[in-house]
Each structure stands twice: as structure tokens, then as C-alpha cells.
Amino acid sequence: MLDRRTMMKGAGASLGLAMSARSYAQIKGANDRLRVAIVGVNGRGQAHMGGFSKLPNVAVTHFVDVDSAILAKRAAEFTAKGNPAPRTEHDYRRLLDSKAVDVVTVATPDHWHAKVAIDAMNSGRHVYCEKPIGIAPAEGEAMIATQQRTGRKLQVGDQQRSSRETQQLAALIKAGELGDIYEAQTWYANNRKSIGNGQEIAPPPNLDWNMWQGPRPRGPYRSNLVPYNWHWFWKYGTGEICNNALHELDVARWLMGLTYPEKVSAQGSRQFYRGDDWEMYDTLALDLMYDGGRKIRWDGNSCNGMLRYGRGRGVLLLGTKGSAVVDRNGFELYDLAGKQTRAASAQAASGTTDTVGEGALDVLHMGNLVDVIRGKAGALASPIQEGHISTTLCHLGNMAYRTNSILTVDPATGKPSSPGAMKLWSVDYEPGWEVKA
């Protein structure tokens, strides 16, 4: 059997990422294997399967989903790729009773994120949680309190923070390459179709509808809600802002060194397929205004896929010495005359506007969590404190839209002064399913 040091001597990081968990487990000394359970396997959960299974000495051992048909399908697909068959559960609480799991990943609908993450940390597990971290800012506060109390590691799925190219751009900005950045323009463009008009019917036999609703007050099943359209219903979803703007807003404020704004405005409307069941905007302009005239803008077009700078999503940074365009797969720098001066492209691409969004960044971001757990890295790329700020920016955008007002915000806490907006700071729960620290 090969000695671990001999196997890894001279090998680069790319070799480590390319090795499968199964082959790595055969190497002598690989007895600190981390066992990963994925909760929610129908959307981003597929990226979790792929990402964690590519990491050295990590095994994806459990799948959890409330849809028995999807659970069986994903388990079969995973095994067909040469991975050991995962154990399957439909109730995540049974998972937490087991000692055979070290890391829990959360890829459920938004209304489940905080509950599963908090319960997992309370049971002693580390967590990888998809964005948004919750459906209201109070859930983020509870997650921070739980993480601080338990000491567990919690990585938020803002995976571009682990991009080597975006980190390179951050260093260039810190060195003064762009001067003072006074504005970020961010965007998202897609061509989503109508969700139609659903009916209140009995849920399919493969779906545990009560468990799917989880922390939210119980209600009837609707034929056009599951598996994806819940995003556009206020009871369960958080709109395109939390669904997609969060990534670019997180990158923009990170590169600009910003936290909470002083004012928030959001002008939104439903321009396409009016009359279907979609409850939210499909077109929205969000402005986050900071001191000194600095601003972050997001233009969301859910149903108009017009690209900007050849990209369906991205960030344009405007500085006093130059500008930069950056997305998940690289960046370009420009001087004040608009001439390109530098560019960097990722060696392996990541998805941008599809519903799974799988790619190289998942491996890097999940690998960062694993390295921190093992003491090989000092800090998480996206800890819960940072994830909470970025998620709250998005919630503030929804608050401004829903109250039809410009919000004045406390830049220290992120809380709006509007009583109407503060009513949306938290949500109601099904009795016995409350989300609390």
C-alpha cells in the first residue's frame, strides 16, 4: 500500500482535487476521512454531490430528501458513477441521531436553510449551507449565535469567494490598481418561462408534503409549486434577489470593502406572463447607497436573457483609476479610456445561470471548508457573519420592494428604520418548528 507522503510528494493541488475519495481512502494514513451528508438532492444538491466527492479523503455517505422518487434517482446516479451507495433518509433528524456523519450540507428550499443548519450545528456537525442563509434576517442572527456557541464551522455557499481569479482581483484592488471604487453595477439575466396557474390538489405519493413545508405554517399543496417554482411565492421563497443577486452583491461589497448601506431602494414589476401565479417581480432595479456617494446597483431580469459584457451575470467595478468586469470564470481590467489592460480566466468553468450551477468553484469552496475543519487553512472563505451581511442586503431589497419605499438603514446593524419593513425582519413558524439559536 502506498504511503501518503510518497503519494502526495511533488503533486500539485490539481492532482489532489482530481483524485476520487474512493482511491484516496486506500492510501496509508487516510484515517481522518470526513463523512458528508447532503440534505436536499434535487437542485444544488447535485453540485454538492459532485464537489465533495472530488475532495481527497472525503466521502459522501448520506442523501436526505422528502421526495422518495428523487432520493432514489439521485442515489442510483451517484452509485452509477462508481461511488459507494449512499444511505438514504427522508427526515434529516434521523441523520442527526447517527454518529456516522461529520459534515451536513444544506441544499433545500430557502425556508429550510436556517433550521437544518442550526440543528446540525447543535448536534456537533460542521455545515455547508447554500445561500440565502434564511428567508428573513432574524434567521441569520440565530445562525450566527448558534455557530458562536457551538464552535462548529459553517461555510455559506457564496462560492465565488473561493475563486482564484476573484481573489487575484481583490489583491490588485487592495494594491490600488483601480484607485477608489465608487460604484459597482451588477446584473443577472435569464429567460424564465411562465409557471402557469396551479391548482390545490393532493400531493404526489412520493412527496412528504408536511415535511417539505417544515418550519412554515401548514397549507395546501399546489400543483405548480414543487420542485422549483416555490422561489416565486413569498411563503417559501425569497425572489430573484436572494436566489441570484446575492452572489454578485456579495462579490461587489467584498471587493469594495463594504457592509450595510445607509439607504436601499428597489423598483420592481412583473413584466412577463402577467396573470400566472408568480407572486413577485421578474424585473427589478436595486440600489444600495453608502456613505461618500458609493453605490452598488443590481439589475435583475428574470425573463429577458440579454447579456452584458458577454455575460448573463457579473460585476462591473468603476474606479478613479480604471474599471474591472468580473464573474465566476475570470476578470478583465480596463483603463479610464476603456482599453483592456489585463485579463485572467479560470482554468475550469463554473455554471452561471442554470439551476444547478455546478463547477470548479464548488470544489474549491467545499475544499476550503474541509481544510479549515482539518486545521490546514486558517479561515473560511465565506463564514456565516459575511453570509449574513450579504443575505441581509437582499432581504432589504425585498423589504423596500414590498413596502414600496426607500429604506433608511442603520449601517451598523443593517436594520431599517421603517416599522413596516421591520415586520419582515422575521417570519411565523409552524408550532414546534421554530428557528431559534
Plain-language structure description:
With 437 residues, the protein is α/β, with parallel strands linked by helices. The chain contains 14 helices and 15 strands. The chain has helices at 4-8, 13-18, 21-24, 44-53, 68-80, 92-96, 113-122, 137-150, 164-174, 209-213, 239-256, 360-373, 384-403, 419-422; strands at 34-39, 58-64, 87-89, 103-106, 126-129, 154-156, 181-189, 263-269, 283-289, 295-301, 313-319, 323-327, 330-334, 340-345, 407-408. Strands 14-13-12-11-7-10-9-8-15 form a nine-stranded mixed beta sheet, covered by helices on one side. A six-stranded parallel beta sheet has the order 3-2-1-4-5-6, sandwiched between helices. The radius of gyration is 22 Å and the shape is globular.
User: How many DSSP helices?
Assistant: 14
Write down the secondary-structure element order.
HHHEHEHEHEHEHEHEHHEEEEEEEHHEH
Structural class: alpha/beta
The whole-angstrom Rg is 22 Å
Number of strands: 15
Write out key terms for the chains shown.
nine-stranded mixed β-sheet, 15 strands, alpha/beta, 437 residues
List the helices and strands and how they pair.
Blueprint: H1 4-8, H2 13-18, H3 21-24, E1 34-39, H4 44-53, E2 58-64, H5 68-80, E3 87-89, H6 92-96, E4 103-106, H7 113-122, E5 126-129, H8 137-150, E6 154-156, H9 164-174, E7 181-189, H10 209-213, H11 239-256, E8 263-269, E9 283-289, E10 295-301, E11 313-319, E12 323-327, E13 330-334, E14 340-345, H12 360-373, H13 384-403, E15 407-408, H14 419-422
Parallel strand pairs: 1-2, 1-4, 2-3, 4-5, 5-6, 7-10
Antiparallel strand pairs: 7-11, 8-9, 8-15, 9-10, 11-12, 12-13, 13-14
